[in-house]
Amino acid sequence: MAVLFYVAKKREWKIRENLRRSARKVVTALTPRRTEFPKEVKDSLGRSRRGRTKLDDVPPTPRLRPEDLEKGMAIELQLKDKKKWGRK
């Protein structure tokens, strides 16, 4: 009985190790190291087999920072206050 138990446990350990290894592969594949694509990928996205080209005149999206959001909210509040005074 002890031999069967040991063989079963050994198989269980191998299966767990394989699961751990495959989970690590999936996580490293899904987790980007940078928040942006590298330049090579960006450049290759512009050229495709179907003849589409990259539009150079489209500006990049601005990066939003918490300070920018706070500034925007402050402007919004100031505009609301001005509207209230103008209703008299």
Short description:
The chain is mainly alpha-helical and 88 residues long. It has helices at residues 2-30, 39-46, 66-85.
Report on the structure:
The chain is mainly alpha-helical. It has a domain at 1-45. Helices cover 65% and strands 0% of the residues. The radius of gyration is 28 Å and the shape is elongated. 0% of the residues are buried. Residues 38-66 are annotated as: Disordered.
Tally the beta strands. 0
Q: What profile does the largest beta sheet have?
A: none
- Taking the alpha carbons of the first and last residues, their distance comes to 93 Å
**Proportion of beta-strand residues:** under 5%
Q: What's the gyration radius in Å?
A: 28 Å
Tell me, briefly, the overall form. elongated
Secondary-structure element sequence?
HHH
In percent, how helical is the residue content? 55-70%
Mean pLDDT figure: 70
User: What is the SS-derived class?
Assistant: mainly alpha
